[in-house]
Amino acid sequence: MEITKFFQYLIVMAGVTYVIRAVPFVLCKKEITNRFLRSFLAYVPYAVLGAMTFPAIFYSTDGYLAAVAGTVTALILAFLRKGLLSVAVGACIAAFLVNII
Amino acid sequence: MRDFRNGMRDGLPIALGYVSVSFTFGLMAVSAGMNWWQAVLISMTNVTSAGQFAGLDIMVAGGTLVEMALSQFVINLRYALMSLSLSQKVDQTIHTIYRFVVGFGVTDEIFAVAMSRKKKVSRYYMFGLIAVPYFGWAGGTFAGAVLGGVLPEIVRSSLGIAIYGMFLAIIIPKAQEDFRYMKVILIAVVLSCCFKWLPVLNRLSSGFVIIICAVAASAAGAFFYPIVEEERKGAEK
Description:
By secondary structure, chain A is mostly helical. Chain A contains four helices and no strands. The longest helix of chain A has 25 residues, at 3-27. The radius of gyration of chain A is 19 Å and the shape is flat. Chain B is mainly α. Chain B folds into two domains: 2-160, no CATH class; 178-237, no CATH class. Chain B is 79% helix and 0% strand. Chain B is built from 13 helices and no strands. Chain B has helices at 2-31, 36-46, 49-61, 65-75, 77-87, 96-104, 108-116, 123-147, 153-159, 162-177, 179-197, 206-224, 229-236. In chain B, helix 1 (2-31) packs parallel to helix 8 (123-147). At the A-B interface, helix 1, helix 2, helix 3 and helix 4 of A face helix 1, helix 2, helix 3, helix 4 and helix 5 of B.
């Protein structure tokens, strides 16, 4: 990738992200009261992560079986309420074990 | 100063979690053809997991700047809500000028820890709470970008699933505790699978797919299963 193109991407990416975070924090001293908007914003992070995870997780490692093993392990650990680190590492170990078999 | 130390102490477990995920980010960025400093620069200016991974995909695929801006906007929209809640939680030591600084460091985990404090939080506490995970995020990216190459291919390949494991660790407990969230997540997942596997639909680039899925699922959720005000206040306490 060309350096100028990279910096264009970087500025847009970082700029949008910063504005989203800082502007409400700096300007809004009042809370949003609209119920639809509040509900929408509450759901967004989970919908984003759901859409990002599936089906991409099945293509995240070489070998379909390894990906499925990692996914199942992560789902079980997450259902057991393990922390972020444990679930991520558990999924990697499961995928690794299937990969070396 | 004591507040700063307390913040750093609370930030340490967050930093440890960040190191593992940002390591994967650095590794993936370099294997996608970037220099180590580019990966580190992305991490230092963005400090967001989902946004950076999606942004990397768009860069590698040569997507448009509009697609980049839109995808970052939708993926990171949740930070606007968190910043709003956090603005009610900080004390008077955080003047407007410091709000520009603290606003930069709002992430899911930092937000969650700050909100879980019993009293209002000072700027020193927030600085400590943000500083440690920030260096964990940047340092992990650097380590992944530089050291990732020496790892055997089989280990590198296995690490690719780490970020998704972390995402599952965030969404599954929420889905268990509240079925409305589970329905919204399922709608998003089904839509996302349709865009991947159905003909015609699968021509759309990944950045737009996430935007469409997230907006459609969240709007459906807000319409059919609105979250009423009293519950929200209860949940924030």
